[in-house]
Amino acid sequence: MNSTVADPDSDYDEVLGGVLVANSRVVAEINDVATPVLIGRDPVCHVVLDDRRVSGVHLELTPTGRGVRVRDRSRNGVAYNGTDISEFRGEKYLRGRCTIRCGAAKVEFYAAETTTRVIRESSEPTYPLVGEAKGMRDVFARIRKIAPLELTTLITGETGTGKELAARAIHLASPRAKRTFYALNCGAIPEALAESILFGHKRGAFTGAVDNTISPFLVADGGTLLLDEIGELPRPVQVKLLRVLEERVVQAVGSNEARPFDVRVLAATRRDLDLRVGFDGDDDDREQILRSDLFFRIAQVRLEMPPLRHRTSDIRILVDHFATELGRNVRITEDGLQLLERYDWPGNIRELKNVVTVAIAFTTDGDVVDFTPHIREMPGKPRRAMKTFVEMERQYLEDLERNCAGNQSEMSRISALARGTLRDRLRKYGLAE
Ligand SMILES: Nc1ncnc2c1ncn2[C@@H]1O[C@H](COP(=O)(O)OP(=O)(O)OP(=O)(O)O)[C@@H](O)[C@H]1O
């Protein structure tokens, strides 16, 4: 499953983990930036302490470049080598060996001897999206507007247009920026496990459930949860998800305790959900991807990511950005850039990033990068001078909107399109709400 965490504190190539030991036994390993280890009284925690003075989730441990970060989420406090952790503003980075006390229980921490490499992608800089084209400036303006609001946001766009990065950008520009950002790829969840992965499960809830699993709603508590490829969730799970979003409590499979959470929910999809949502309340239609009630719950605000072929002027900046990230001393020529600008990029920025990475890998330091062989092998075709129908329609609607200063009755009269149809087409191209 592709789950990633962005945290302003974890902007490192390498992280330091460790193990927790209780009663001379290793009770948890802290080595995954995406899954903080939780200690508490609640059975969903990795280390469960049966002590009334211990809170449901008492503390959270995450590997970072500065050591293992302890976050106090308790009512009664956590002691680090005998000192209350609140003296360190509720946060402390563990290295070496130390003792942590929660209620009456004592847990030993031992730092790992070696660091663990994490992919830099899971630690993007504060503003991860690159772009200067009009389409991207609109996206930035919208992110700035959306970020402080607590509304659910549906991010749409073709594959590789940066939907997950946009979600991180919303999180980082929001008041929740210091807390966890968790991305759950709903498209990668096997149908049979969807409920237990989304809501968590209690040990023994079903055959094979040997461990407790914590719901991403609780892992991201206080922060932001991205439900990526939400259209892929099985319909029975959609009904339950809707209830969880409305009641803001989550109940693990096999548990009878409902746990409240405080999470901002973002969703992303590359499918055209608008066309496949049941607007008539006919929610039994198998053809629909998403129930209409869930669609409206998760799409209080919309953000559309433009395809790269609509912002080819950004190709230069992006190539520069990816080349700088690779830190290699190679030369990129005007011809090379023009070749990239003529291509139609069906895989969008992900594809561009791959082409740049591979082409640079094949170039010796000081030499000119030759993109030609890598472009030719791509599934997309070089852009033809002739426009596709979709491009012409988009251009027509943009001109129409400009000429009529956005007045939709006027636009409907000139184009001879019914108001409803016109609105649908404008929405399709992100030209209207
Ligand atoms: N504006 C951008 N600036 C820099 N890098 C970008 C930008 N947009 C996308 N990328 C990079 O392109 C790749 C794909 O981005 P991302 O995963 O956010 O796309 P996506 O729309 O969520 O894709 P999918 O629909 O296939 O899941 C990532 O490596 C990301 O870092």
Automatic annotation (TrEMBL):
Could you tell me the superkingdom of the organism this chain comes from? Bacteria
Q: Which CDD domains match?
A: AAA, FHA
Give the InterPro entries listed for this entry: AAA+_ATPase, AAA_lid_NorR, FHA_dom, Homeodomain-like_sf, P-loop_NTPase, Sigma_54_int, Sigma_54_int_dom_ATP-bd_2, Sigma_54_int_dom_CS
Q: Name one Pfam family in it.
A: FHA
Q: Where is the FHA domain?
A: 37-85
Transmembrane intervals:
none
Q: Spell out the SUPFAM superfamilies in the cross-references.
A: Homeodomain-like, P-loop containing nucleoside triphosphate hydrolases, SMAD/FHA domain
Q: Which residues form the Sigma-54 factor interaction domain?
A: 129-361
Q: Does the keyword Transcription apply?
A: yes
User: What are the alphabetically sorted keywords of the record?
Assistant: ATP-binding, DNA-binding, Nucleotide-binding, Transcription, Transcription regulation
- Protein name (record): Sigma 54-interacting transcriptional regulator
